[in-house]
Amino acid sequence: MQERSRLVLVILLVSLAINLFLSGLVVAWWMEDRKRTAPSSVQGNHFMAGFGMLNTDVAQRPEVVAVWNKRESAVRSSMHALHAAQQRVRETLQADPWDTDSLSKALAELRQRIGVSQELWHQVLLETAAELSPEQRVRLALFVPGMSRGAGRGKGQMCR
Fold first, then answer.
1. Residues 123 and 45 sit within 8 Å (Cβ to Cβ)
2. CB 18: neighbour CB atoms within 10 A?
3. Cα–Cα nearest to 103, from 16, 4, 3
4. d(CA 50, CA 43)
């Protein structure tokens, strides 16, 4: 039975590590783009920096700015909730005495928060793309995380 508990613990830790790593990549990418991008007169500039498209002609369109401004507070709230869920997982792992049920609940909340955040970002992308011409959607595709050629499979490789 103790060996089974160790296996469950290892599986949970691996799952946590993967979730934290992926969330960390998204946040690090967003923060790095935000640092490199000069502030703009566009009101939704902080939000659009998340897609790395702040100073593009696509981002300057009033229709796109309206979409980003409308969704900014919801995305911020979602990201804060995601970070809080990550913190609860870290705290649960450090708790003494350690409790499997608490960690399981914290991980379930983290998965739920990741899903909510991803769904919200997808909705923003849908609304943004609806306001763009075909050429602008091609340019937007260059800025969407994970949507470039070869994303996740090695740079430049294509799925056949």
1. no
2. 10
3. 16
4. 14
DSSP annotation string for 59-89: HHSHHHHHHHHHHHHHHHHHHHHHHHHHHHH
Is residue 64 within 8 A of residue 131, CB to CB? The reply is yes
Nearest to 25 by CA among 72, 116, 86: 86
Which of these, 112, 120, 149, lies nearest to 19 by C-alpha position? 112
Long-range contacts of 129-133 (CB under 8 A, 24+ apart): 131/61, 131/63, 131/64, 131/67, 132/58, 132/61, 132/64
Note down pLDDT in tens along the chain; length 160 residues.
788 888 888 898 888 889 888 888 888 888 876 665 544 444 444 555 555 555 566 667 788 888 888 888 898 899 899 999 999 999 999 999 889 999 999 999 999 999 999 999 889 889 988 888 888 888 777 776 665 555 444 444 444 3
Exposure letters 24-42 (e unless 16+ CB within 10 A, then b):
eebeeebeebbeebeebeb
